[in-house]
Amino acid sequence: MTKQKTKFDDNIHSKLIFKMIDDLKSEEYSVEFQDPVPWEWFGLTDYPIVIKKPKCLNDVVNGVKANTYSTLEEVKADIDLIWENCKLYNM
């Protein structure tokens, strides 16, 4: 039996997601996750080879604003991808 996905309701969910991301951004450790990794500036030439789908918190905010998410699970998957990319590249 498959779990039913929660349809994204812009009127309800956008405010909650923006609040959650603002809360994340208020943490000092989140600075590195707010914008795309400047891999060229850091000379991380292998970054685009290792990380196939880069994602940052501002990408999620922009996706919510542009109505690109149809379910809450898609939003969660993108937020999870941020942390998974970090672990993949740094461990």
Notes on the protein architecture:
The structure is a single chain. With 91 residues, this protein is mainly alpha-helical. 62% of the residues lie in helices and 0% in strands. The protein has one domain: Histone Acetyltransferase, Chain A. Helix 1 packs antiparallel against helix 5. The longest helix is centred in the last third of the chain and has 19 residues.
Give me the CATH architecture, please.
Up-down Bundle
Kindly report the name of the CATH homologous superfamily: Bromodomain-like
Number of helices: 6
> Mean pLDDT score, rounded?
91
Tell me the fraction of residues in β-strands, as a range: under 5%
Q: Whole-number radius of gyration?
A: 14 Å
Assembly classification:
single chain
The main pleated sheet reads as: none
Q: Can you tell me the residue ranges where pLDDT is under 50 for at least 5 consecutive residues?
A: none
Helices and strands: which structural class?
Answer: mainly alpha
- By DSSP, the count of extended strands is 0
CATH top level label: Mainly Alpha
